[in-house]
Design brief:
The chain is built from 21 helices and 14 strands. The chain has 620 residues and is of the alpha+beta class. Helix 6 runs antiparallel to helix 10 and helix 13 runs parallel beside helix 16.
């Protein structure tokens, strides 16, 4: 059996992945099968390194001194070197490299040797510093990406390894942005050496297409597929027999897709919601800390907005406005909303090219134009205090969802010659209205979700907020206009019970998670059990989050079932939301598992052993 060079607990120098920088690390264990050492950096990051990427601390310092002594002092102070060459050389060093060079080039002293370790310390820029505590994410999309280039070090460097294997990042501590400070060699002896700045983030695999080389193709695919899919659903649900066997659905003449009046209606609706958003009504809520430490303020008056919107809608109907126009021109309104989302996405990307780097989203900062346009380049685009992402996330599409459902109820009464909407239509309207009202009443909770904290605002969210939500989540109501489905009293009872149970689980679990994220030391949460992690955060293993890993997903799925049952089982189309949601949540769960295992390492493995089931107890 091969001998192990470094033992558990040894303090050694480990090379940072993809660079020539070495930092002091502690050996945690050695995997004989993979021949990799698991080490932990001072900031809590765990990596698996090969033996050739690890040096003993004593040998490393000796090597650094021998390199510095091999240089001719006369050459180092030569006046024949041009100023331009000197400047180029200095600019290529990090602050830590300059400090380390000055220390090793001077006469050895115990005081300066002690500072060598400080010069090689690493402070990571946080990928997820905005979460004081988290269990799992509760949003639509997520993985964060930033391309980083290791700084070149001239005085202390590692030998290149042509067969370097992939490094496995296990955990990372949120430690604030590391800032490089330029240190002149002659000043090092007078003041403390500054710590080296490590790469801001280790590149992770990108969403929607994988790593560089595939991401552009993936982004193109989703840019084309998402609008095409909404178009397909819109055309399909309008058929008398909306069977998926009727593919492709008949396509109307091209001139029918665009209607100036529909575009004007969409623009007017968005401006109306923007007016309600800027009114000085409601609470000014504080967002989670950004990478800069700043906390943005948001006007959380969504409940006020939906109440006013409902009153205005009721007044319009009373005055004779025919809201069944929404049903008759559903396709044209969807196309108009798509055009608005494209124009908004172009504006967002263009403006993002002129903002400071710290305002960019990690996940949308790949360097690929198509991918960044799709994923979102800027994190929190604002026009003064008007937050574009927060507004689109919670207002026009979400409240528009309820407006469209109400219009479908009026269209059903008109088309079926009814004095009141059917029981099925009433259930769909009430269930989905409750879901939206609850979200707007608890609007402040969205500030702790991944959409607001980490996802950039680009085509993905703009299209999702303005097109996907209002024109696909309303398919049940649209379907019932032409396909009535009478319900018996027992069926009504079962469906209502399912909805209430799902809503209770969804609201309670989300409230518990949001409270824990905002203040883990809240006395009302003291009864909850947690597992500490190397990042300083804790994982909930009791309460709702001790039953399954995603109790909010479980509540969401039960509610989705209650939304679909009123439409019956004659066709698959009204079950689209349920099917889509299962696929989405399973994908989220898989992504969360990968992200959390990378961030929390062995603590996440312990969490998975404690909370065995992912979404459905004893099933999945």
């Amino acid at each position: 059996m091969p001998s192990v060079k470094f033992q558990k607990g040894d303090m050694v120098m480990g090379r940072w992945p993809g660079s020539s920088l070495y930092y002091e690390v502690k050996v945690l264990n050695f995997n004989a099968k993979s021949q990799l050492y698991t080490v932990i950096y001072k900031d809590g990051t765990e990596l698996e390194l090969k033996e050739q990427d690890i040096k003993s601390t004593v040998g490393f310092q000796t090597r650094a001194r021998s390199r510095s002594r091999s240089k001719s002092p006369g050459r180092r102070r030569s006046r024949s070197r041009s100023p331009a060459r000197t400047t180029r050389r200095s600019s290529s060093r990090t602050a830590a490299a300059v400090a380390a060079a000055a220390i090793t080039e001077s006469a050895p002293s115990s005081r300066r040797e002690a500072k060598l370790k400080e010069a090689l310390e690493v402070r990571l820029s946080p990928i997820d510093q905005t979460k004081p505590a988290e269990n799992n994410s509760n949003n639509k999309h997520e993985k964060k990406e930033e391309n980083n280039t290791a700084n070149k070090v001239n005085e202390v460097e590692a030998e290149p390894d042509k067969n370097q294997s992939r490094y496995n990042l296990r955990r990372r501590k949120d430690d604030g942005d590391a800032k490089q400070e330029e240190v002149k060699p002659e000043e090092v002896g007078e003041k403390e050496a500054k710590p080296a700045a490590a790469p801001a983030a280790i590149p992770t695999s990108l969403d929607f297409g994988g790593k560089i080389g595939r991401l552009k193709m993936g982004a193109y695919f989703w840019l084309l597929f998402l609008p095409a899919w909404v178009l397909f659903l819109t055309l399909q649900v309008n058929l008398k027999d909306p069977s998926l066997a009727n593919f492709p659905p008949p396509v109307p003449p091209l001139e029918t897709f665009f209607d100036a009046q529909a575009l004007g209606f969409v623009v007017l609706w968005i401006l109306f919601q923007a007016l309600l958003y800027v009114l000085p009504v409601g609470k000014l809520s504080e967002g989670m800390p950004l990478r800069s430490g700043e906390r943005l303020k948001y006007r959380t008056n969504g409940f006020f907005a939906i109440v006013v919107s409902s009153l205005v809608t009721a007044a319009a109907v009373y005055q004779g406005v025919d809201l069944t126009y929404i049903h008759s021109n559903f396709l044209q309104l969807a196309v108009a909303s798509f055009l608005v989302s494209v124009l908004l996405s172009v504006y967002l990307y263009v403006r993002s090219r002129y903002v400071a780097p710290e305002r960019l989203a990690l996940g949308g900062n790949s360097g690929n134009v198509v991918y960044d346009f799709f994923k979102g380049h800027e994190l929190n685009p604002r026009i003064r205090d008007f937050d574009l992402k927060f507004f689109c996330e919670m207002r026009p599409g979400l409240i528009g969802w309820c407006l469209i459902n109400f219009a479908m109820a009026l269209a059903e009464m008109k088309q079926q010659h009814l004095e009141a909407p059917s029981h099925s239509m009433i259930l769909v309207n009430l269930f989905q209205l409750l879901y939206v009202v609850d979200g707007l009443w608890n609007e402040e909770a969205i500030l702790t979700t991944m959409d607001l904290m980490h996802d950039g605002f680009g085509f993905m969210l703009a299209f999702g907020d303005l097109v996907w939500v209002p024109f696909t989540y309303t398919l049940q109501a649209y379907y019932l206009v032409s396909h009535p489905n009478p319900l018996s009293f027992p069926a009504l009872t079962v469906i209502i019970t399912l909805k209430l149970v799902g809503f209770y689980i969804f609201r309670k679990s989300n409230s518990q998670k949001n409270a824990f994220r905002r203040n883990p030391s809240d006395p009302t949460l003291s009864h909850l059990k947690t597992i500490p992690t190397a990042t300083g955060k804790s994982l909930l293993v009791s309460g709702w989050w001790g039953v399954v890993r995603h109790p909010n997903y479980l509540g969401d799925l039960i509610m989705a079932l209650a939304w679909s049952l009123p439409c019956g089982c004659s066709h698959l189309l009204p079950w689209y939301y349920m099917i889509y949601f299962i696929i989405l949540l399973v994908h989220r769960d898989s992504r969360d598992m990968s992200d959390c295992r990378r961030k929390y390492g062995s603590a996440w493995d312990e969490y998975c052993r404690t909370v065995r089931y992912r979404i459905i107890p004893r099933v999945y």
